[in-house]
Write a structure and sequence with these properties.
Strand order of the largest sheet: 11-12-14-13-15-16-19-20
Shape: globular
Distance between the termini: 58 Å
CATH architecture of the largest domain: 3-Layer(aba) Sandwich
Length: 345
């Protein structure tokens, strides 16, 4: 019998990950690489009366999240203590294949006296989005001018809490990989997120007419009306869809768009951005897109990029990362995206 401990699963060698499980009932694996769908759960194979094993082949630099099902019960892997929130109130186990490289901010570049600040604010929504008011955070770099660009960050609380975007931006500014930027990190609300992010004109009004003027007034930034197209917008999943939508509908505001795992289609339903693109002879903004190799949105993102590439003379980047649909993966790719969009080189 194999000797196990809390960090046994999985055993990774080259491209193979091997999982073990002890118990009377057959376990099944749900993960990024099978879309988390019940019909795609992968069964473990019995190797003794109460021992089970599963071999999975992956790319050697993958980051993977997963859980185990025994019958109808969802459980954390008892042989893997590594857990991360799944964004829906539960936790996934995770692991990295041998060649995976995580983005780590070098300790020597952490300089508290040069770091930006985070302040929480609230604005009245005037019925443009759900609720009478909406909270958001403003990141202000240590040094900025009235001409400093603003980046709108959708799902702002998740990019702050789970990605630590402020620390990434601090690092990129301190090391002069990007110029100083201000960020408005706008909270999303689960009850209304889908409605607001699936190409909502009302949400666009909220950002353009309420959030942006508030930030400009608070920090003394020159109005976007006097420097058209100097702002950016970032989002993931439905947020990635809305980021592209905002760029298409308000190119006079957003000339820099980052879409991470954009949900450009829902099941078989294509969102209106496909139609909006046909109205533009040239894409009106620079665009950085990325998507996970192990997520269902890979095909639609690839198709969308090809659709854009044929009608754009702007700066474009598209990459596929070796992971699924989650914030740890998006955070690992974010420095590259920010450098591509904001670098002055």
């Amino acid at each position: 019998m194999m000797k196990t401990n809390l960090n046994t699963n999985p055993i990774t060698i080259q491209n193979r990950a091997t999982f073990y499980y002890s118990g009377a009932k057959q376990p099944f694996l749900a993960s990024d690489f099978n879309g988390w769908e019940k019909e795609n759960f992968i069964p473990f194979q019995r190797i003794s009366p109460d021992q089970w094993k599963l071999d999975i082949d992956l790319v050697s630099d993958a980051y993977i999240e997963y859980c185990i099902y025994v019958g109808k019960r969802r459980i954390s892997d008892p042989l893997n203590s590594n857990k991360t929130p799944n964004g829906m109130g539960k936790f996934n186990n995770f692991f990295c294949m041998p060649d995976h490289k995580s983005f780590v901010i070098p300790s020597k570049t952490v300089q508290p006296n040069l770091q930006g600040t985070i302040e929480r604010h609230s604005v009245i929504t005037f019925g443009t989005v759900y609720g009478k008011s909406r909270n958001f955070s403003i990141y202000t770099p240590k040094l900025f001018t009235p001409e400093t660009p603003l980046l709108i960050v959708l799902d702002g609380q998740d990019y702050l809490d789970r990605v630590r975007i402020n620390e990434i931006v601090d690092y990129l500014i301190i090391t002069k990989q990007i110029p100083p930027i201000v960020m408005a990190l706008v909270d999303s609300i689960p009850i209304s997120r889908t409605i607001e992010y699936t190409c909502s004109e009302s949400n666009l009004l909220f950002l353009n007419e309420i959030v942006i003027p508030f930030v400009e007034s608070k920090l003394g930034l020159n109005s976007i009306k006097h420097r058209p197209g100097s702002y950016g917008i970032l989002g993931a999943s439905f947020g990635g869809l809305f980021a592209v939508y905002a760029g298409l509908r308000s190119p006079q505001v957003y000339s820099k768009v980052i879409s991470q795992s954009g949900a450009f289609n829902f099941r078989q339903h294509p969102f209106v951005i496909w139609d909006l693109l046909t109205l533009h002879k040239d894409l009106p903004f620079d665009l950085c897109m990325d998507v996970g190799q192990y997520e269902p949105l890979l095909a639609s993102n690839s198709s969308f990029y090809e659709f854009i590439r044929k009608r754009s003379s702007k700066k474009l980047d598209f990459s596929v990362f070796p992971a699924g649909h989650n914030y740890p993966a998006w955070g690992n790719e974010l420095p590259k995206c920010l450098k591509f969009i904001f670098s002055e080189e």
